[in-house]
Amino acid sequence: KILAQKLEEVKIMLRNARSDFRRDIDKQKGEAGVSEDDIENDQNDLDALMKEYAEELEAMAASKEKELTTI
């Protein structure tokens, strides 16, 4: 139960960080030297990175849950 709560807290932190970074990326719109393609690429990179972290968290939680239930 505690593991699920901690996992959810970390997921919320990731979502908040993603939101902050997305806001920073969006602020670049209209700036000199920043194309729409650059912004789209940055957003895609951010989404891929966050997905990777979320998958790692799920794997770690599953591993820890298995470890705890084995004892």
Brief account:
This protein is mainly α and 71 residues long. The chain is 86% helix and 0% strand.
Distance between the termini: 16 Å
What is the tally of helical segments? Answer: 2
Gyration radius from CA atoms, angstroms: 17 Å
Oligomer: single chain
Structural class: mainly alpha
Q: What characteristic shape results from the CA principal axes?
A: elongated
* Number of strand elements: 0
Helix content: over 70%
* String of helices and strands: HH
Q: What integer is the average pLDDT?
A: 90
Question: How would a textbook summarize the main sheet?
Answer: none
Low-confidence stretches: none
Q: Tell me the fraction of residues in β-strands, as a range.
A: under 5%
How does this model look, in words?
The model has no long low-confidence stretch (mean pLDDT 90). Helix 1 packs antiparallel against helix 2 (36-70). The chain has helices at 2-27, 36-70. It contains two helices and no strands. It is mainly α and 71 residues long. Helices cover 86% and strands 0% of the residues.
Question: Key features?
Answer:
single chain, 71 residues, mainly alpha, 2 helices, elongated
Secondary-structure blueprint:
Elements: H1 2-27, H2 36-70
